[in-house]
Amino acid sequence: PSLREPRYRVVLLGDPGVGKTSLVNLFAGVQERDLLEQHGGAAYERRLTVDGEETTLVVLDTWEPEQRGEESQRRSHCLQIGNAYIIVYSVTDRDSFESASELRIQLRRARQAEDIPIILVGNKTDLVRCREVSEEEGQACAAVFDCKFIETSAALQHNVAELFEGVVRQIRLRQGGK
Ligand code: GDP
């Protein structure tokens, strides 16, 4: 890729089991070894064309649950390095929805003065009969926390491409303002 082609880091946040890895696996092609080493975990890189322009997204799936209330270095690193964030919860798990709000608050604290794009994602919409969080609640939460919202199903590959395209558009919107 040319130097002028934009490259953005997108960090996935959310409780274990909500579908972060499934979502990024659907999206991503390459897992580069130097990327992995640099970020100490799972990093995926893919070029995509959105609205006729190419962009490279590096998606980091390195979030880990809090251990005994300790603020791990990796967690605070994650909150610092993203150009954009995807906060995932499962629509079948209300606790993960509460965690998503908590993560939004942590992120705001970590990046106070910045206007970083955040997308709230309600995943597992295919599990209709296990749903614990309605789409309206997700939307309302996103409105309160001033972020974008989308529901996805990694299992059905529903809205996954739209999610990552939306991330690119949100990043560009803010770049355009500069
Ligand atoms: P992570 O811990 O957030 O990375 O979650 P994973 O991607 O490892 O997914 C946890 C489990 O949920 C796995 O068994 C996935 O197959 C399953 N899963 C992920 N996304 C979906 C989805 O959209 N629908 C259904 N039914 N299962 C899903």
Question: Outline of this structure?
Answer:
By secondary structure, this protein is of the alpha/beta class. It contains six helices and six strands, in the order βααββαβαβαβα. Residues 14, 16-22, 123-124, 126-127, 153-155 line the site of guanosine-5'-diphosphate.
Provide structural commentary.
By secondary structure, this protein is of the alpha/beta class. The protein is 38% helix and 22% strand. It has six helices and six strands. The protein has a six-stranded mixed beta sheet with strand order 2-3-1-4-5-6, with helices on both faces. The protein binds guanosine-5'-diphosphate (GDP). The site of guanosine-5'-diphosphate (GDP) has 15 residues, from α1.
H/E order of the elements? EHHEEHEHEHEH
Radius of gyration, CA atoms, in whole angstroms: 16 Å
**Tally of helical segments:** 6
Strand content: 15-25%
Please describe the biggest sheet, giving its number of strands, its sense, and whether it closes into a barrel: 6 strands, mixed
Q: Helicity range of the residues?
A: 25-40%
Low-confidence stretches: none
Keywords: Calmodulin-binding, GTP-binding, Nucleotide-binding, Phosphoprotein
Family: Belongs to the small GTPase superfamily. RGK family.
Protein name: GTP-binding protein
GO molecular function: calcium channel regulator activity; calmodulin binding; GTP binding; GTPase activity
